[in-house]
Design brief:
The protein is of the alpha/beta class. It contains 14 helices and 14 strands. The longest helix has 38 residues. The radius of gyration is 21 Å and the shape is globular. The protein binds pyridoxal-5'-phosphate (PLP).
Amino acid sequence: MSTVADLAQLTSTHPMMDAVIDEVDCRRIRVGDQWLADFASCNYLGLDWDREVIEAVPAALDRWGTHPSWSRLLGSPVMYEQLERRLTTLLGSEDVLLLPTITHIHMSVIPLLAGEGVIFMDQRAHKTIFDGCSIARGHGATLVRFRHNDMEHLEELLRSHSIAPRVIVTDGVNSMTGNPPDIGALGRLAREYDALLYVDDAHGFGVIGQRSRDELCDYGMSGNGLIRHQGESYDNVIFVAGMSKAYSSLLAFLALPSRLKQVLKVAAPPYLFSGPSPVASLATAWVGLEVNERRGDDYRFEIHQKTHRVLDRLNQLEIHTPNTSGLPIIEVPLGDDEDIDAAGRYLFQQGIYVTLAAYPLVPKNEVGFRIQITAANDDEQIDRLCEVLGDMTSKFSFQPRTRPSQVGESQVRRGVQ
Ligand SMILES: Cc1ncc(COP(=O)(O)O)c(C=O)c1O
């Protein structure tokens, strides 16, 4: 408990932690008497409030009931087959396997891929990836970490750990910085050293996709994820993503070779033993993919425009954010980590709901808050957010925009701004 003392303290006292949401009206939420603009939602495409998506649910429930309680090995409604085929086409991968969540996938698939070999994990990889690696370690794998996005360090480690199988594990679009890794460089190393590259693109899928002359913005088209966005191939790559964020549906998948899919069908515990995704999620995922085909690029353009308004505002205020990608995850570290409680309360009072990035969720020198922009946030909310960010500069210190990209331990003290 001592390692999570800061988080525990915030969770028990702060209105923006462990909150009970009393009412939701699109991207506005009510907590007690307070209505707030929601910048903590991961429903990037705004499909959680799309009428077409909502209206797809009753017919699916009439046909399948609320929930099939078979594990997938026992049997799966035909919607799984249809979804896997549709996702395979969208991604341009060899095959797709659906499981309920990315967490289920990491816990079960990373240990199977690694066996008694070596896992090379980006040191900033998501906690659920790390937990999957820890299970793998319990089954005999060796876990080594490479410095965040440091290809030279990764190559050094690949040279010095030759036991097969070898798996490189990393986030796609990072859930805090909003920045993607260089998949080309990672893929080249994977192929050169006969390793698998395992990428968790929970935050990229649905938001970024293949580049095209017809694209409306540099997020690309179709939202088919980071591998396609960077024009890379799926050779030696296992691409993992979910529908729990951009598609507002409890469902996740691996894009993988068909022969690995057959192995996972008999060896991955969630396929064998876990309860499946709810029927409502299968239905909303399916209609979500249809909506994506027709309107997804327009939604992505809206996210792009709104995100750039917030990034421009931070620039103007000379506030540092690690976001260099322009993607809709904007982390704002505070100058003084002790301000997190007060800064969060201030945002709450001003009607802005964000994700607090508390220690130990992030290192002390990155404590602050994370803003997420979805297609369902309206212009008025973006205006209000920009105004409140400006007001905050006289009350709290931020890290200055010009500081070196490598975050040091030294803190900018209150009032310096
Ligand atoms: C990078 C990343 N991976 C995995 C997860 C967990 O996904 P799921 O809810 O599908 O288990 C998250 C959720 O926050 C995430 O950000």
